[in-house]
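Researcher: Hi, I'm a grad student and pretty new to this. My advisor asked me to get structures for two proteins we've been looking at. I'm not sure of the right format, so I'll just paste the first sequence and hope you can take it from there.
Model: That works fine. Here's the first sequence with its structure tokens right after it:
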Amino acid sequence: MGSTLFKPVPPVDLAGRSCVSLDLSSTNFALPELSHLDRLPAFEEKITALLTAQRADFGIGGYGEVRSLYTTDDFSVLSNGRKTYRTVHLGIDVWGAASTPVVAPLDGKVYLAFRDATTGGYGPTLILEHRGPGNLPFYTLYGHLDESSLTDMWALPQVRSGDQIATFGGTEVNGNWPPHLHFQVITDWLSYEPADFPGVALASDAERLLAVCPDPAPFFG
């Protein structure tokens, strides 16, 4: 995805907005109360407090982070009678207000629009297909959207860079999260169905999945 052909715009318009790096990793000991995802009120209050304290519109980060907040049954895998958790984050999160517009970073087309109804899942989700150098396909995934994003996008399957494609969903529709965008780049679906492709990996599988989910930082300039 390198080369002069790759000139994306950020999936969220950050021009003139205050942005801070937001570290939700298990090594950030300033966030001990976020050790479990089921503590949603404390999680949402902490995100809001962090942004307010720094007078920030958006908090951005998360690629490759190991997050203890995923140590719930929704992210568990049972192997040889032992429970392990998917804790390695495969995308970048942009934390902000519900209804924040989301735009296409590059020209592309709607590859899939679906609703992940699992607790702690993506909620309404879009996947766009793009073409890189050599006409090779790659994909961008947008999770935790508003419900209207799904119907609106099926009516407009082709998108241009900068077109609005979605908005941040509120907690009640976005998989039970504080409002934010999960943005992930995927170069190969491996053996997964696209709607089942993980946004968080087991530590034992992280290297394989990070290899096909490169760091989205270039999309943010």
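Researcher: Oh nice, that was easy. Here's the second one.
Model: And its structure:
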Amino acid sequence: MTIEQHELYEKRTKEMETIANIIEALPINEQWIKLFTAMAYYRGWRKLPEHKQEKLINIAEQNSPSVATIVEQRHTKLSLDKIERIATVVTDEADRAKIRDYLLNLSWENAKKSINLIIASYEDQAA
């Protein structure tokens, strides 16, 4: 490993440690902390600005732990924006249950299409 590579590795390690410390300090359940830390690592987050921290808290407060488990185990492609929209836009528990079923039982592409349709129906009602 060259000196430049080692310095870059040290920098990235410190960035990840900083993000992990910020996530651990958020007032959220341990399961969400674990999920968000894994997302930060696997998605290569470099920073965790205030607005993103608020988004994480909002997601954790609005969703059940079962959603965290499903996302963690099955669908790492589900974006924070999509998780937040599910948490804030979809208000009916029956529709949230459908979304959980889609995530568990469908391929990512089919689950994404079905989830987008549910979210769109709520956004159409609001318009």
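Researcher: Is there anything I should tell my advisor about the second?
Model: You could mention this: The two ends are 56 Å apart (CA to CA).
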